[in-house]
């Protein structure tokens, strides 16, 4: 099987090839100012390698959705789905090796970064059995791995940067090969850029970017000026998957094109100024307001994930909702809340996820049970989830009243580990070990668990005893009870 694809021609009109097998092992970095042809280069790379490797495209501007017109790519419009659904799709994509374009153009920048973080983490956290090779193309990578803080919140920036770092630094062993494009190397985090071994450098004008690009290409500083003189669609390439010496490449043509407007000049209308003025300003009061075009029906998450299994099949036809039905009877939310909490805690890693992700997952589960609205807000969910991690799914039961009263002296984030200890004391069970307390607290650090227990003891909420054999028991003074030594 030939693993090489042709991406263009060099200065001597000879074809330039990229070894896809080597590219998966060594990753790719593309740099060029706006208008230099980065998106065209990525489209050529995707089209030529479509039959060789699974492709996952992070598309912030919706430029690559047209790949689905001629290839087997599935378009996921991120604005139509929740974080939990995006994460579930990421796992399904790895399992079924579906080629996907994640279109982010309907989202604001902060929502784009959050979505990409969730999506890439889902790809990265796939089970070992699903570590199939996949080319992950990220356009405008400086948005998701910025070198400096911007207008978005620090939490969102760290999450997005961490996901991009995992993709480029640790993704290879999981079959994920990053191919990232950026307008400026100075805007891209160095930890992300440094892991690429193949480079395609397009036209750039700032001295700092030219010097850095020349260093990556192994060129002398005085040769960096030629990067400023590159034509649109021309790149300097270097790397084990391309060539061992820098070569100038003119990227070849593509079969598909972006749906964005053309940059070519068009003849101006030939109407006289008076006629044009009449067309613009006549009868403005009588002109009816244009009705917005009907938005396409969002594809349900489950329906879209079914397409991952058989991407070649045609999409299902729109469902006719028919006449409105009678209103559904009211549903008691409490059994739904308890069932959702039990299902979430069936995942051992659930306690280590961010609260926003967990609440989104909880909300989706409630809507799937046909609740008209989510029965808990974020603060209420945080408390109920902490109780559930300690095995207390119905706080209204009388047996838990004294224990919950004893927990009021501690911060909310310590509620779950304290209740876990208290429940063990009430049942006469062995003291929970550090792993169990860490899972309840949301940490894998033994040091944080020790500091947690020490803090609870300083607050008078618990009393820790250790025997000569090193076995620990923890008492709850407010209850007059203690766990068994463990």
Attribute tags:
14 strands, HerA_central, Arc Repressor Mutant, subunit A, alpha/beta, 38% helix, HerA-like, 15% strand, Helicase HerA central domain-containing protein, ATPase_Atu1862_pred, 486 residues
Task: Itemize the secondary structure elements and their pairings.
Blueprint: E1 4-9, E2 15-19, H1 20-26, E3 28-31, H2 38-49, E4 54-59, H3 67-70, E5 74-77, H4 83-96, E6 100-103, H5 109-124, E7 134-138, H6 154-170, E8 176-182, H7 190-193, E9 198-201, H8 207-216, H9 225-228, E10 234-239, E11 243-251, H10 273-281, H11 301-309, H12 333-345, H13 355-368, H14 378-389, H15 401-406, H16 415-427, H17 434-441, H18 446-458, E12 463-466, E13 472-476, E14 481-482
Parallel strand pairs: 3-8, 3-9, 4-6, 4-7, 5-6, 7-8
Antiparallel strand pairs: 1-2, 1-11, 9-10, 10-11, 12-13, 13-14
Domain Helicase HerA central: 5-74
InterPro entries: ATPase_Atu1862_pred, HerA-like, HerA_central, P-loop_NTPase
Protein name: Helicase HerA central domain-containing protein
